[in-house]
Amino acid sequence: MASSALSAAIILAAGEGTRMKSSKPKVLHTFAGKTFLNRVMDSVTALNPGTLAVVVRFQGERVGEAARSYNEHVTVVEQDDKPGTGRAVQCAMEQLAANGELTGSVLIAASDMPLLDTETLGALLDFHNNSGHGATVLTTVLDDPTGYGRIIRDSEGNVLRIVEQKDANSSELAVHEVNTSVYVFDAAVLSKAIKGLNSNNAQGEFYLTDALETAKQESAVGAFAAPDPLSVEGVNDRVQLAALAKAHNLRVCEHWMREGVDILDPQTTWIEDDVAIGRDAVILPGSFLQGHTVIGENAVVGPYTTLIDAVVDEEAVVERSRVQETHIGRAANIGPWTYLRPGNELGEGSKAGAFVEMKKAHIGNGTKVPHLSYVGDADLGEHTNIGGGTITANYDGVHKHHTTIGSNVHVGAGNLFVAPVTVGDGVTTGAGSVVRHDVPSDSMVYSENTQHVVEGWKPEWER
Ligand code: UD1
Ligand code: MG
């Protein structure tokens, strides 16, 4: 992308987003795993603006804090009580000018467009720079333009101004080309253009859109149509949010299918943007692939499986399970109904079966934990088998303790390992053992559990 210097970018995030009917600001709602604000900031940051400003007001502290968490170099600007997108930019420009005179291009973007991407912004910037215009607005054409500002052109097609829905007459309302709320301005043109803004309009707000008309007195203004209409779709309520998320997810699924991944039902398979999937992997219905999850070739995931920042190597199978921050080795077999919490390493050909929960467990190659067990803060060697219903008691109420079990160990059913405890290689344990003390290699351990029989006994109600 040959975008020449962008001196500043201003992201507008001061609005409440009343139509979301939410206790949190609209820009902190999530889309495909990241907030709207995070997504727009990432797209803008990739263009390397000299300064990145985010304008806040509604729950400003919370939005400002979020912005800083996504990019520590952000300049947070507080908008005052005067309402409107124009006022937001006035406040930002005032603060930016305090750091010295701005020259070059300034990008302005609303923050309620979750799919606004770097490619679209870069193309807008290139168009602007090549046109020599003082201002360029990013537009799109919508079947239903209701609610948007309309782009008004003269008979030769030159952009004259933007008219908001609430201020438009019937012929203006008939226009389908709309303002996306993304612009590039020459810094000097912008500074002049926002000076004269007023709030003499249907909403009593300072409109940034009016700055386009004033900019015309300084230099030519233009419009650039977004190549991909989805990239500029705004979200104002939760119905639009769901529809846009669905459309985006379908694209992501189609991308992976074209890369050689089998997705049985794209309608019920949700894949976030940073996921990677190998060829001939099979994703079954009802699966959620989130964060930086990586799935190897020929792996089978689902049905009804959630993977969060998980790594699933080739040929592994993960069925009806929830897996987070866990590495599943090649050809391992997980599920059904397995809960792998953060910090597990499962070796090649290992197994975690039904109703098994693990946390910070290292399971060696070929080791199997097939049924109804909890393994937490534990290291298990290779080719060890854990009997059903076995628990590592890792928590004494204050501290977590570690269990180490060696290789080629046969743990009987219903064992309890009271950590900290270490069991050597080649050990066999009896069913129902409570292992409180270390066990040397190549030994057998069982704990006495006396069986008492009371002959002829009956419950009281039967006596
Ligand atoms: C705005 C545009 C409209 C465009 C539409 C695209 C104006 C006057 N209108 O209308 O032409 O078609 O976006 O979605 O600009 N914001 C602030 N401070 C404020 C008000 C808003 O920072 O005082 C921020 C909001 O957080 C939001 C963005 O500006 O990110 C747009 O505000 P919104 O109220 O959604 O404007 P629209 O009415 O949608
Ligand atoms: Mg809006």
TrEMBL record:
Acetyl-CoA binds at N394, Y395, A431. It catalyses: alpha-D-glucosamine 1-phosphate + acetyl-CoA = N-acetyl-alpha-D-glucosamine 1-phosphate + CoA + H(+); N-acetyl-alpha-D-glucosamine 1-phosphate + UTP + H(+) = UDP-N-acetyl-alpha-D-glucosamine + diphosphate. Residues 239-259 are annotated as: Linker. Pathway: Nucleotide-sugar biosynthesis; UDP-N-acetyl-alpha-D-glucosamine biosynthesis; N-acetyl-alpha-D-glucosamine 1-phosphate from alpha-D-glucosamine 6-phosphate (route II): step 2/2; Bacterial outer membrane biogenesis; LPS lipid A biosynthesis; Nucleotide-sugar biosynthesis; UDP-N-acetyl-alpha-D-glucosamine biosynthesis; UDP-N-acetyl-alpha-D-glucosamine from N-acetyl-alpha-D-glucosamine 1-phosphate: step 1/1. UDP-N-acetyl-alpha-D-glucosamine binds at residues 12-15, 26, 79, 84-85, 149, 164, 179, 236, 341, 359, 374, 385. Keywords: Acyltransferase, Cell shape, Cell wall biogenesis/degradation, Cytoplasm, Magnesium, Metal-binding, Multifunctional enzyme, Nucleotidyltransferase, Peptidoglycan synthesis, Repeat, Transferase. Residues 9-140 form the MobA-like NTP transferase domain. SUPFAM superfamilies: Nucleotide-diphospho-sugar transferases, Trimeric LpxA-like enzymes. InterPro entries: Bifunctional_GlmU, GlmU-like, GlmU_C_LbH, Hexapep, MobA-like_NTP_Trfase, Nucleotide-diphossugar_trans, Trimer_LpxA-like_sf. It is found in: Cytoplasm. Catalyzes the last two sequential reactions in the de novo biosynthetic pathway for UDP-N-acetylglucosamine (UDP-GlcNAc). The C-terminal domain catalyzes the transfer of acetyl group from acetyl coenzyme A to glucosamine-1-phosphate (GlcN-1-P) to produce N-acetylglucosamine-1-phosphate (GlcNAc-1-P), which is converted into UDP-GlcNAc by the transfer of uridine 5-monophosphate (from uridine 5-triphosphate), a reaction catalyzed by the N-terminal domain. In the N-terminal section; belongs to the N-acetylglucosamine-1-phosphate uridyltransferase family. Homotrimer. This is Bifunctional protein GlmU. It comes from Bifidobacterium adolescentis.
